[in-house]
Amino acid sequence: MKLSILSTGLAVLAQFVSAAPTPTEGDAIAERANIAKRASITDVATTGFATQNGGTKGGAGGATTTVSTLAQFTAAVTNDEVARVIVVSGTISGSVKVRVGSNKTIVGKKGANSTDDFLALIGIGLYINKSTNVIVRNIISQKVLAANGDAIGIQAAKNVWIDHVFVLQKSRAKIKTNLFPSDVSSDLTHGKDYYDGLIDVTHASDWVTISNSYIHDHFKASLIGHSDNNAAEDTGHLTVTQHNNYWSNIGSRTPSFRFGTGHVFNSYFLNANTGIDTRDGAQILVQSNVFKNVSEPIAALYSDDTGYANAFDNDLGGYANTAPVGTLTTTSLPYSYSLLGSGNVVAAVVGSAGATLAL
Known about the structure:
Blueprint: E1 2-6, E2 16-20, H1 25-38, E3 63-67, H2 70-78, E4 84-88, E5 92-99, E6 104-108, E7 120-129, E8 132-137, E9 140-142, E10 152-155, E11 158-163, E12 166-168, E13 199-202, E14 206-211, E15 214-220, E16 223-224, H3 231-234, E17 239-243, E18 246-252, E19 256-258, E20 261-265, E21 268-272, E22 276-279, E23 283-287, E24 290-294, E25 298-299, E26 308-312, H4 342-349
Parallel strand pairs: 3-4, 4-6, 5-7, 6-8, 7-9, 7-10, 8-11, 9-12, 10-13, 11-14, 12-15, 14-17, 15-18, 16-19, 17-20, 18-21, 19-22, 20-23, 21-24, 22-25, 23-26
Antiparallel strand pairs: 1-2
């Protein structure tokens, strides 16, 4: 079923739902090819919460600069709020947290889910703190030490679109040894706190979309809301959409969601200790996803104050949704979207999620 929801805001009640036939696998493959062909370094957000509050266009309309060193990259993204498109060419390595200023697009030059090829940031944490209107797209991010924050950390920010990124920490880490085949290499010499999160959204950030990304081989993947004790700041904020993502070999937080409003759809979760965790009054709508080898695919875990989830058309892999039913429904969202149908998710997402755009 393809579902479209139109409204003018979260508080608006006059909304409607229309249905159309579920796309076939062939439709999904054709659409992936069309997306790659249409992609541009000046694309703006067209899905999820990042389309709200005036939209998210990053550096579109500003100058374009190509960077290939850490010094060039830092100077281009940090020093001002001027609209700019920063094109990453080649692999840039370091051990540093780099603040990303407002009105910036950071985009990889070519598409290849391999750190042996193009567009990789190794050891560099992207810190989107108190910034507005930021796009990060078609980038590989790997091995960011906890001292340098998350691979992508979004704090007190508004209007952020993370799209077609490929994030992991230690390559091919074995998170839960009994889940993975013997030919997958292991790195358990470092504990779960050696690295921090992959894509975290905290401190009342709003209007965030994380889409078409390959998120894998890590203990703690994506935290939405950083503390049970932060209700005063976070309540009424943390509006986050996550869709068409591929999560693989994860310990937890796919995502873990506190306080806010979340929408997770068209995604594939493969091999994780826990899946979507809703806490501290969070309201999440979970649609058209597939979970495989995830024993708690949708649950309310680890907090005294529960969160809530409404779930529709999810393949839970033989396990159960144990989260309390919430109030967020298909008529509660301020944007339109399309569902693949759970039977089409794996074919549509695997191979297209990640830094796959030929820009």
